[in-house]
Amino acid sequence: MTLQQAQPLLAEFETLIASNSNAPRVGQLISQLKRIIFLLPSNDPLTKTKNEQELIASRRFHELCILHSIQSKNIQSFESAINYLRAYYENYPQLPASQDRNQIIALNLLYLLSFNKNTEYHSALELVPVEDLHNNQFIQFVTELEKQLAIGNYSEALLSKNKSPLAHFDIFLDRIFETIRFETARSAEKAYESLSINDAIKLFNLQNADQLKSFSAEQSKQGEEQGFSWVFENNRLVFRHKDSDKKALFNSEFLISTALSYAHEIEKIV
Question: What range(s) does the PCI domain occupy (predicted)?
Answer without folding.
Answer: 76-244
